[in-house]
Design a protein that fits this description.
The protein is α+β, with helices and mostly antiparallel strands and about 160 residues long. The chain is built from two helices and six strands, in the order ααββββββ. Strand 2 and strand 3 form a beta hairpin.
Amino acid sequence: AAGAKYGISPCGLGARDTLRLEAGMPLYGNELDRRTTPLEAGLARFVHLERGADLPGCRDFLGRVALEAQLAAPLTRKLVGLVLRDRGIARHGYAVRRPGQPEPIGVVTSGSQSPTLGKAIAMAYVPPSAASTGTMLEVVIRDAAVAAEIVPLPFYRRTR
C-alpha cells in the first residue's frame, strides 16, 4: 500500500529470479555451489591472485591452490547463456546436448520465459568446446529436443 502512489506493487521471488536471470547473474544453489569455481561461472574478473601478496595472511586463502591449478589448465566446463529457438522453457537440471546426439554434454542451471525479451532463456554449464556464441545445442524438455543457441551474457543490457 505504501508504494501504490508511485506505481509500485509487491512481487515475489519468481520475479526476482527472472530479473537476475535476464541480467545473467549467477545464484548460489543454481549456477554456484561448493564444487563450482568463479572461473567456471564466468566470474574471473573477481579473482585477483596477485592482490594482497605483500599483506600478512592475505597471500593464502581457502581455494587458492585449486584456482591456480585451474588457471594453469583448460577449464572442463563453462557457464553460458541460451536462447531457446523452439517452444519450451528450460528448467534447472534439464540436460543439454549437441544436436542429434543422445548423450548430454551439460546441464541447465536456471531457465525461464523472459517477459522483457519475449523469449525463453536459460543458463547452463557446457564444455568449453561447445561454449562459443552462436553454437546450436538442444535442451531436453519432457523427452523432446528443443533447439537452443548460445548467446552472450547478460541477456538484457539497459541502453543509456
